[in-house]
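My hope is that you will study the protein record below before we discuss the fold together.
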Amino acid sequence: MEAGVTGAWSVRDILAHVTTWDEEALKFLPLIVAGGTPPRYSVTYGGIDAFNARMTAAKSDLSLAAVLRLMDDTHRRVIALIQAAPEDQLTGDTRFRRRLRLDTYGHYPKHAEAIRQWRAQWSGGQPSVSRSSAPRSHATLATP
């Protein structure tokens, strides 16, 4: 994988990162529905950047194919969680909706744009992720 899409991250690293945040949504949205409060990343990991670095390192040995499978499976589970969520969590400005936005759909555009810009720099080469290799539910992450 070619680094440099976002800092030292490759397309695979970005997709693994987005998947990590989908996993965080799966972990903490049910806690929020139950009235609980997720731990603070500053306390648990020393901050968001430290968490991101730790999770990137934990997924660094995964192949692109493995990351794509994990991303697709995790995103499907997020969709199922949303579909099963109580209606009162989905309407209005709830803690559930704020966390969902921060961990998922509010997070995707920044990384999708980085991949688009990186792909636009390619002239004649094959980008690390193409439309044909991206799972359907995340195809917008890798398309121009």
Residues 11-142 form one domain.
